[in-house]
């Protein structure tokens, strides 16, 4: 069966510090991968998605970037965090095609 | 641009009552998804509706899809406290060969004893 992992689970970082969040999927090949951010009490904002290694599409301009160095690994990064980067970051995967997504447990980021 | 609208956004109801959450979307799609999010937790899939007229039921929740009206409903029957959560609908649209899900803003449901 497939599983999706995210780490760390929680993170507190000062403004201006770098960020690296990792997401890995097990039990499937060539998944479509997604990064979402959810501000407190708000809906989901799609940040990035990837349909293959090295293929990244950005949905919103911001100080974040994403990379997919391996088939089942998706990384979200920032060189300098802003206060507005605080939120709940969710990674999700799905098979290619119009299928439901499977979400990871999330990383709660607080920028101070 | 595909738009997905849910209403209501907030719903406070008593145990034992019935209610319906609505999900409207703006362009043609024949697949719609419902997810549940418990406070502080991630999203989990509830239903996948694959075609016009599809109906899925699990426990006190029933979801339906009308692709002609571009409308899905999530009906709650005899609500219980355990159903308190945020419910999202999502619709996939094709972009450059990829299927990109678009989510509604979510309906926050609180069930009172």
Observed structural traits:
A: 112 residues; mainly beta; 7-stranded mixed sheet; globular; B: 113 residues; 11 strands
Total strand segments of chain A: 11
Strand content of chain A: over 45%
For the sheet with most strands of chain A, the description reads: 7 strands, mixed
Most extensive interface: pair and counts? Answer: A-B, 23 and 22 residues
What string, H for helix and E for strand, traces the elements of chain A in order? EEEEEEEEEEE
Overall 3D geometry of chain B?
Answer: globular
User: How would you sum up the global shape of chain A?
Assistant: globular
Oligomer: heterodimer
Sheet with the most strands, sense and barrel status of chain B: 6 strands, mixed
Roughly what fraction of the amino acids of chain B lie in strands?
A: over 45%
Describe the structure.
- The complex is a heterodimer of chains A (about 110) and B (about 110).
- Chain A is mainly beta and about 110 residues long.
- Chain A contains no helices and eleven strands.
- In chain A, strands 2, 4, 5, 6, 9, 10 and 11 form a seven-stranded mixed beta sheet that branches. Chain A has a four-stranded antiparallel beta sheet with strand order 1-3-8-7, with no helix packed on it.
- In chain A, a hairpin with a 2-residue loop joins β5 (about 45-50) and β6.
- In chain B, a hairpin with a 2-residue loop joins β9 and β10 (about 100-105).
- In chain B, strands 2, 4, 5, 9, 10 and 11 form a six-stranded mixed beta sheet that branches. Chain B has a five-stranded antiparallel beta sheet with strand order 1-3-8-7-6, with no helix packed on it.
- The interface of A and B includes residues 90, 92 and 104 of A.
Short description:
The complex is a heterodimer of chains A (112) and B (113). By secondary structure, chain A is mainly β.
Could you outline the blueprint of secondary structure elements for this entry?
The complex is a heterodimer of chains A (112) and B (113).
Chain A: E1 3-7, E2 10-13, E3 19-26, E4 32-38, E5 45-52, E6 55-58, E7 64-70, E8 73-78, E9 87-94, E10 102-103, E11 107-111
Parallel strand pairs in A: 2-11
Antiparallel strand pairs in A: 1-3, 3-8, 4-5, 4-9, 5-6, 7-8, 9-10, 9-11
Chain B: E1 4-7, E2 10-14, E3 19-25, E4 32-37, E5 43-49, E6 55-58, E7 61-66, E8 71-76, E9 85-95, E10 98-103, E11 107-112
Parallel strand pairs in B: 2-11
Antiparallel strand pairs in B: 1-3, 3-8, 4-5, 4-9, 6-7, 7-8, 9-10, 9-11
């Amino acid at each position: 069966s497939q599983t999706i992992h995210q780490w760390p689970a929680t993170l507190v970082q000062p403004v201006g510090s770098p960020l690296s969040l990792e997401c890995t999927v097990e039990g499937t090949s060539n998944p479509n991968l997604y990064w979402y951010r959810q501000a407190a009490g708000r809906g989901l904002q799609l940040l990035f998605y990837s349909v293959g290694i090295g293929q990244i599409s950005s949905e919103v301009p911001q100080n974040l970037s994403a990379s997919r160095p391996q088939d089942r690994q998706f990384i979200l990064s920032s060189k300098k965090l802003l206060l507005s980067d605080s939120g709940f970051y969710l990674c999700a995967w799905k098979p290619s095609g119009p299928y439901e997504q499977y979400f990871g447990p999330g990383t709660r980021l607080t920028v101070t | 641009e595909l738009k997905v609208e849910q209403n209501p956004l907030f719903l406070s109801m008593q145990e034992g009552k019935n209610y319906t959450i609505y999900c409207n979307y703006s362009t043609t799609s024949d697949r719609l998804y419902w997810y549940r999010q418990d406070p502080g937790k991630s999203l989990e899939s509830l239903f996948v509706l694959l075609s016009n007229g599809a109906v899925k039921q699990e426990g006190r929740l029933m979801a339906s899809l009308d692709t002609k009206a571009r409308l899905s409903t999530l009906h709650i029957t005899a609500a219980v406290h355990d159903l308190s959560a945020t419910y999202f609908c999502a619709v996939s649209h094709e972009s450059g060969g990829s299927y990109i899900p678009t989510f509604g803003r979510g309906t926050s449901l609180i069930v009172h004893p």
